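>> received
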Amino acid sequence: MEKEKLWKSILGELEITISATYYNTFFPGTKIEEINNTENTILIKCPSNTSKEIIGGKFKNRIQELITNRTGKNYNILFDFDKREENNNLEKPLFKNFNNVIIEKEKSNTENKVADNSKSGLVNDYTFENFIIGPNNRLAYTVAKAIADNPGKAYNPFLIYSGVGLGKTHLLQAIGNQIALKRPNLKVLYCTGQEFLNELMDHLQDRRNKGGTIRDFKNKFINNDVWLIDDVQVIAGREATQEEFFFAFNQLYLNKKQIVLSSDRHPSEIAKLQDRISSRFSMGMIADIQMPDVDIRTAILRSKKEQMHLYIDNETIDFIAENISTNIRELEGAFIQVITYANTLGVKANIETARLVLSNSIVTREEKNIRPTKVIQEISKFYGIEIREIKGTRRNKEIVLPRQVAMFLLKEINQLSLMSIGEILGGRDHTTIIHGADKIKKELDNGNFKLKKEISTIKENILDKY
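>> returned
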């Protein structure tokens, strides 16, 4: 098979089997450069070092499998990137290090300067330099850095979604701070969805009481080069707020101004968000941030230790990182609790102190070491349906509930990424996993006693048989 036809076939398969975010960001511009039958190698050329590292690290095995299926030969897959094209492509950030943990250091004579952000809503503490990068957030970071380097030129709009405390605000602020520092001629505005809502309500009240207009409100948001809006999901369900948001968004977008947003969920999962707004979000780039693994959590705490000039041994830091895995905010909170307790009582901040202070927050080791297959097996037994049905495509009511319980428990007990859960459950999309897990959580929060008892029993069975 010719190399062009082979790669076109591979790309067609990847487009429908992997995350659209990864495919649309890293695969355009790739090609098979050479098929060497003598050395039994295939060289894949990527447009940048970033795409080479991501594709070679995350998708190599999948690509190798697809090539083997199509050629009948087990080639050694090699990756390279076009250095000339990357040097000319200023819209894509360059990384010198793609280890599991990266603290990107900007090499510039403005490194220690800060911009005057008094009117922009920015906080100088949030920078790319002190953002810890790992597999859980690398895509979001990569796009954020590209935007900061060239606002309005690529990835517009850009939306980051994740649970609380995982770094959405940090990245939005870092974008704004870098632009304000390096391109002071551009006007940057950061606000939250709640601030947008509150300010609109204030202006509407003033108009009723004083007979004024809402023009000042509109001008505040449309007269910017970069608009960063955090927790945009707050505007959902509020028609007047969505009308004004849509107007501001459209004005900025049509004028090629940069828009960056964050949300606690994928836009398709935001209830009561107008379709026209959701579709606008989908026009650009969407990336999620997952909970970091233990190596990244350890790196975050060690960085915090250095920033605060604290004395605490690495073994204790490792202990905290291993046992606090909900979100970064709680991780850092637990770290400060241990330090504060030790300083107040004049004791060492060691593992014994950490175990005492965090006793109510630590998840049992038994829960953390349970295999995903065990969770699915117990759900299968409890509901009396086969595992293949849970992973299958049928949507009968008696199958959908156990499947959603599986999504919920794999996320809660095993703390797997949405993509990992989707792969385990038959290759489902991450938005399906979000919907299923959230539905179970809402039922529990709304007092569904029957479901709560069922899940409690399943968890007991899992732990008893561990």
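>> The CA atoms of residues 203 and 214 lie 6 Å apart.
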